[in-house]
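Case study B.
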Amino acid sequence: MYSRAVEQAFEHPAHAGKLSGACGAAGSRETGTRVEFSMQVASGRISRMCFQAYGCPHTIAACELAVESLLGHPPEALGCWDPGGAAERLKIPVEKTGKLLLIQDALRNCLQDWDTTELDVTE
Amino acid sequence: MIYLDYAATTPVDERVAEVMSRCLVSPELFANSASSHAPGRRVNQAIESAREQVAGMINAAARELIWTSGATESDNLAIIGAARFRSNRGRHLVTSVTEHKAVLDSCHALEKEGFDVSFLHPDEFGVLAPEDVSAAITEATTVVSIMHVNNETGVIQDIRAIGEICRSRDVLFHVDAAQSFGRLPIDVRADHIDMLSLSAHKTYGPKGAGALFLDARRIGRVAPLLHGGGHERGLRPGTLPTHQVLGMSKALEIAQRNLAGEPPRIAALRDHLWQRISTIPAVQLNGHEARRSCHILNVSVAGVEGESLLYGMRDFALSSGSACISDAAEPSYVLKSLGRSDQLAQGSVRFSLGRFTTRAEVDQAADAFAATVARLRDLSPYGLPDGMD
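Model:
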């Protein structure tokens, strides 16, 4: 039911938490899934990024994977995160696609929040 | 893996397995019990002896017991069979929204045939008021079906009081006792039960074996659901599986013999588990604190997503609700009927304990549960519910 990659990320999420800086969220407790991302940018690159998740193991694992893959990239990369790639890597079943779309929404909201402030900690 | 899902099914007791395997290989017991030759008569004798034994455990006569494939079939035969057979007297049934799907879906099937069904709501603790049953009975009511012990919460219904009401109103009373046999005493006469469903696999017997009691003085027959032979008084055709019947009989005999000692031991373990788990903030007991079968502890955890909670507890065999529907993403309809929100219903876990559960296992489960809940709350943007810090 869960791939080894999901199990690893669920058991040992290295980027769980909350940072001061740009943030974006999507979903709600009522709908069963809520994800929140927060990040800091230094010299035009994502220097620190964290997530918080209320959701299934696939959601938690996909959040961890998203943060891992985005660290070190320009903030604009948040808008290009590929749910399909995450689904493939984590072997997420098709009925869970909605969870990945929520993560995509939260990342885009995070980018939008950063766009409004453009706060770069090196500045 | 620690098994804490005894309400879903129980492991076959070794003594039962021994009886069954002996039966399967014995040259004396392979014949068809419906055959009139000597080997057939020998098998028939063994089956009738088992029937007498099981019937005696519920204070019934042997001729009042029909072998079935399990409680689901017994529920279907009792409810649909009795309603159809009595349809000239009325076309109304009464049941509760917290019944097992075998009962609810049987009622829904009858609704499609034009029957009316009243689905009663229990209180916030899952207890059904007998007076609500009384109020729901009309001139057209022929069958009332109420389970003895709820399979998700373990809540015990007052079947004797409901039985009295049904008897006084001349309505047939069916009880699903799949979860209660071997954990609570059952006396069909004293409890005024007209039809009773029994299961073997909830009581350390084989899967695929069950029985239906039909009170001979109250209900001569039901309309059969299956056709194809005169077995079981023409009510349930099909060659009887001798090993299943003898296995069920042995399993129930052991459970009945242990009735004084085993349920209190399991109840003590369940109470110990609850004592440990109840120290976790924002954990709620589902069901009635006192009117609860010894083997079930159902809890809801605020602020924790159910699938992750179960996955975090994957070293333990647990259930998030009725095992029959646990693949479905929908929150438990039983917990919803108790007034739990979608989140609380979905974030619920059923621990069910049994004959082979030890105190060490219960402690391990409590430790793992506390750690999993804490970890998931740390991960969650909601953290602890308001006011629980």
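The CA atoms of residues 108 and 119 of chain A lie 16 Å apart. The remaining cases will be described in the next quarterly update.
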